Amino acid sequence: MVGPRRQTSGSHGQEGVPVTLIIEAVILGILTGSVYALMSSGLTLIFGVMDIINIAQGILVILGAYLSYTLEKYLHIDIMLGLLVTIPTLFLLGMGIEWAFMRRIRRDRVMISILVTFAVALVIEGLLNFIFTANYVQLQAPYVDATIPVFGFYLPYIYVFAFILSVVLLTLLYFLVYRTKFGFGLRASMQDRTAAALIGIDVERVQTITFGIGVALAAAGGMVFGATSPFNAATSYDLISRLLVIIVLGGMGSLRGALFASIGMLIISDVTDVVWSPVWASTVFFALLIVLLLFRPRGLYGRLEGRKQ
Amino acid sequence: MKKTRTLGLLALLAVLLAFPLLFSDPAVTTIAIFTLLYAGATTAWNLFSGYTGYVSLGHAVFYGVGGYALALLCKDWNIQGGYVPFLLLPLVGLIASVFAIPLGWIALRSSRHVFVVITIAMFYIFQLLAYNLPGITNGSAGIFLPSPPWDAGFFNTPFYYVSLTVLLLSVGVSWWVRNSKYGLGLLAIRDDEDRALSLGVKTGVYKLVAYVISAFFVGMIGALVGYFIGSLYPPFAFTPVFDITVALMAFLGGVGTLAGPLVGALLLAPLQQYLTVQLEIVGLDLILFGALLLAVILLLPEGIVPTLRRWVKWTASRSARTGPRTDIKGKEEALLVKGGREGKR
Amino acid sequence: MVRSTVAISKLFSACIVIVLMLTILEACSSSSTTNNSTQAGPIVIGASIANSGDFSADGKPTEQGYQLWADTINKQGGLLGRQVRLDLVNDNSTPEGVTTAYQKLINVDHVNLVVGPFADLTAVAAAKVAARSGYALVEGSGTAVAVFQQGLDNIFSVSLSAKNYMVSFAEYILSLPAGQRPKTAAYATQDDPFLIPQLDGARALLEHGGIKTVAYLKYPAETSDYTPYAQRVIASGADLVLLGTFTPDSIAYVKAFKQQHYNPKAIIAASGPDQGSQFTGPLGGTKVAEGIFVPNGGWFAGISTYQNDQFQRDYIAKFGGTAADISSDTVQAYSVMQVLTQAVNKIHSIDNAKLKQELHSDAFDTLQGPVKFAPDGENTTAVAFLFQWQNGNLIPVYPQNHAQANPEYPKAQWPSS
After folding, report:
1. Is B34 at the interface with chain C, CB within 8 A?
2. First CA to last CA across chain B, in angstroms?
3. Chain C residues 223-282 with CB within 8 Å of chain A
4. Which of A104, C131, C290, C312 is deepest in the core (most CB within 10 A)?
């Protein structure tokens, strides 16, 4: 049996990795990073306001993807338009989950919220497996494959659309959180739940709506994710672990952190794929988290510890 | 009263020891073995996560390290199947503990929330290392453990007793810690770490020690599972299912208590094995498990043992007096206690 | 006072738990204490099916294969004059589940014979349990190299070995005239014990034949984004691309190649292109798949192998659809049963020891072609078929006696979407 050969980088022989590949990796990193930013914003928001680590976020993204898939396949609704249906649906679902399960958790939120959200994730995963089976699917649209030549390689339109969609939604989110009355209540609840309640903010309502928003963002992220990768219910595991790493890296509860961490991590991951090796890219992804936390235990933009209740 | 308790526990022990003789069917003892192993793992996990309040979802690292350690030792030292691999278990546990020191040190520097995610990240790193270091682990092709020469009727028996021993050790250490000053310190960390620190508890060291001890047992258990099944592959040696199952069992039984993990494992492990084998419909096992988990958490948020204990206490105190407090029970009583948390359990 | 209540409640809970556990175990055992050792009763064949877990997509087709065979043989009077009954349990696609499953089948249900679980990762665990009780394990999907290296003498793999899958492709490429032959090759494979040997087997031949390896990537199985790996392959500019993939990654690669207008002279993927609409659907149509090769373990709809006509007719009668819908998992399962039937009939017995001897020494015939087992359990007479998408259909192009057309080479340019 021939032993493993050292990898060469194609037609350029031993010169090293061609610059175009690296540029490509960076661009892809930014574009896919925006998608991850969308998915992880919801996660970090939920944590910030409710101290809950929503492990179900991964499967909810997949649920959003399956919803878009169903709309597209059986009702022939374009995946972008389908968002008008999937986002509100998942928003309501999120609120429902919060009302049904999260509200009951009064204490020990860290531990129990992990278990509860994991249980919810299991149930949703089982349902999806049952309805759709474990076969892989992918969202289709005419612009999913079409490409535009850029910098010596072809950029699929869908990535650009995904990026634009993410930017739009994140801007809307920013607007919501920083410029509206609701957002004020949200930020107040994030800082100090008791004090917020004391000044008249309906903290429970804020929490329910925030959870709904977090899940609604998952719907959008799901559509884009589903258009760029084949998926099934089990894909949620890889997703949630990456999302968790991203929000910790960015600082739990920080939207800005989620954005920068997503893009940063994806760029680094994609470049490592190209420059070093695909098998190590995933390892680097996780290892980077640990390295960063050694130097900055609260992440890039994390708040200082000691949130008083 | 102490006599009743000791007698009761001895009776329990007798039943456990006699079990393989009473139920010689290998299918039953297989389930029993997995139950014992999960009980041991859950107790060990609880020793760290339950007592300190830091939820680790990455203990599978030690599970896998233990398994691969045993496989590699058997390979390098040319050990045949039989009783000898069992003798290697303490060494395997030690290896897992050695891994736990740097990992624990890194992870425990963060807050509780971040800690959870770090353990998950470490878990994935190890899984990926198992895949990507084929020189050591043989990568995705898997690594195999020697097959003991015992026949079908006898095969499970040594495994049963070794698993029981590991479980008893795990419970013993857990009990000893619980009743020691060290254990008090751990519980103090769980309740209010800053306060504990200010009271002079060396929180960093305490947490790390608990982490390392729990890794010791989990490593041994991982090795036992690997030896029992005979093969190890990266996705199964480092499986996320392990941590979730262990956490679930601990929560079901009552995290932070001594008997809780045992109760949880005794209930869930056979159920899990049984359900897996019996169910035909795709996805149903996940739905059922998730629904069960939800029901348990919402209805018995503290777990079975503390709820039972409170119920027993309530009935006992009820018969002792007739004051206005007889209508308060369960959760409400818990909420009345300071900070919504029960004091020392 | 507190201590005693603590003690009582602890004891109480422990008692409840033990009682519950005993009840469950009682229920487990009593529900299936069937005595199968009587001569006149049915022959019970046990197997574990992946109804949940990673391989759940393959569970149902495998079950269908076993079930179809059981129905067919019972209609013909049974095996050795006795009716056949299947005892199928779920294994959750894990070695742990498989261990429990086969323990139950052998020790609780006392089945007469066992056949294998689906997948390489669980075959060894099943074989070890079976070996302890002296059972033979004929299986159809554990063909990875490691499976045969465990010193097990009771495992019999009826399907083509993993390392031989792409041999026909390599031989075809090397048979091309020097001017047309590709000069460089890129290999990309998932880190899986079934896929890696396929690629390595082909690579050994191709490198020996002078085709330079310009890229060799292995990526983790649990990936969700294959784009970077596809980019790597594209950047290598290789003439030939060999992919060790399952369905989702094969789709991702082809899509990426198409998007980047990368046209190697030939592409082969270990699996994916053989999944019919599951492959072509996400790609956007069968035209996109034009020219892509996929290896095959020796069966396709309409092939004139042993009992295939009847098999196809029976399948359509029972499950509907067309022969093209039949999954290779079903074929493998059915082939396993065919071998078992032939062996049992030859020795007129279901004794496992005699069965093992017979399986080791004799030759058999199946839907997938001839079977002869090496001492380590491999099937040494299986031939790797080669399929290619041509004009919207997946057709065999090798070996000659089964080919419906010549292989298309070089691959046509991607259709403009």
Report:
1. yes
2. 19
3. 223-229, 231-232, 234-238, 247-249, 251-252, 255, 258-261, 278, 281-282
4. C131
How much is the CA Rg of chain B, to the nearest whole Å? Answer: 21
Identify the DSSP state of C397: E
Q: Are C363 and C370 a contacting pair, CB within 8 Å?
A: yes
C-alpha distances in angstroms, A72 versus A7, A132, B98, B116?
A: 41, 15, 53, 38
- Residues B211-218: what's their mean pLDDT? 96
Question: What are the start-end ranges of the E strands in chain B?
Answer: 143-144, 231-232
Per-residue pLDDT band for C20 (boundaries 50, 70, 90) equals low
Given its phi and psi angles, is residue A62 left (phi above 0), alpha (psi -120 to 50 degrees) or beta? alpha
**A216 touching B (Cβ < 8 Å):** no
Chain-chain contact of A136 with C282 (C-beta, under 8 angstroms): yes
Q: Is pLDDT at A192 greater than 70 in this prediction?
A: yes
Residues in chain B: 345
The single residue listed with the structure tokens 């309906």 is: A202
- DSSP-assigned letter for residue C304: -
CB contact under 8 A, A241 and B120: yes
**Per-residue pLDDT tens digits for B262-297:** 998 998 888 877 777 776 665 666 777 778 778 877
C22 touches B at CB < 8 Å: no
Query: Which of B43, B228, B282, B286 would best serve as a mutation to test chain C binding (most C beta carbons within 10 A)?
Result: B282
Conformation bin of residue C92: beta by default, left when phi > 0, alpha when psi is -120 to 50: left
Residue C309, number of CB atoms within 10 A of its CB: 12
Nearest to C65 by CA among C138, C153, C164: C138
Query: Measured on CA atoms in the order A287, A292, A298, A300, is the torsion positive or negative?
Result: negative
User: What is the DSSP code (8-state) at residue B321?
Assistant: -
pTM: 0.83
Q: How far apart are CA C280 and CA C260, in angstroms?
A: 18
- pLDDT averaged over every residue in chain A: 82
Interface contact A282-B294, CB threshold 8 A: no
Residue C412 burial (10 A CB sphere; 0-12, 13-18, 19+): exposed
CB contact under 8 A, C215 and A231: no
Residue A25 in 3-state DSSP? helix
Cα A111 to chain centroid distance, Å, stands at: 22
Q: B316 and C222: CB-CB below 8 Å?
A: no
User: What Å distances lie between residue C97 and A205, A231, B34, C122, C305, CA to CA?
Assistant: 45, 25, 11, 9, 35
Tell me the DSSP string of C93-146. TSHHHHHHHHHIIIIIS--SEEEPPSSHHHHHHHHHHHHHTT--EEESS--SGG
Tell me the residues of chain C between 156 and 175 that have a Cβ less than 8 Å away from chain A. Answer: none
Does C54 touch chain A if contact means CB atoms closer than 8 Å? yes
Distance, in Å, from the CA atom of C280 to the CA atom of C289, rounded to the nearest integer, reads 7
Distance from CA of A229 to the nearest CA of C (A): 6
Cβ neighbours of A155 (radius 10 Å):
18
C357, burial (CB in 10 Å: exposed 0-12, middle 13-18, buried 19+): middle
Lowest mean pLDDT among A177-181, B230-234, B300-304, B324-328: B324-328
- Rounded to a whole number, what is the distance in Å from the CA of C149 to chain B's nearest CA? 10
Handedness of CA B18, B20, B23, B28 (dihedral sign): positive
Complex ipTM more than 0.95, yes or no: no
What is the arithmetic mean of pLDDT over A39-53?
87
**Residue count (chain C):** 417
Better pLDDT: C55 or C373: C373
Taking CB atoms and an 8 Å limit, are A283 and B57 in contact across chains?
no
How many beta-carbon pairs under 8 angstroms link B with C?
Answer: 184
